[in-house]
Amino acid sequence: MLIVYGIRNCDSVRKACKLLDEYCVDYNFHDYKKAGADESVLSDACERFGWDAVLNKRGTTWRKLDDETKASVTDQDHAIALMVRETSLIKRPLVLCGKQPLLGFNAVLWREILEKGEL
């Protein structure tokens, strides 16, 4: 079963879920705000994509962090610990199971993968 990790009110997540629904893909949604972030899932994502890609430094949550906290994120372990505490720092959506792992939403790429049946 495909699992889409994210935050329900995130625009990228909503677009991804809408596209999955359009292609009649069966999936479960894991809402970080309701269910939290699992350290092992984040570890897997960091191994696949790199912790610096999984940690979203472009959003307001990152910008609101104090400089000391930002400076403390020097490796994967520190990044995961911070993302578990601050789930809004995780790039969304995240899909790890299935044939093709995905991080973030790119409509063209997602459509291409869905049309090939590779998700």
Automatic annotation (TrEMBL):
The family line of this record is: Belongs to the ArsC family.
Which source organism does the UniProt entry give? Pseudovibrio axinellae
* UniProt xrefs under InterPro entries: Arsenate_reductase-like, Thioredoxin-like_sf, Tscrpt_reg_Spx/MgsR
Q: Which residues cross the membrane?
A: none
- State what protein this is by name: Putative reductase
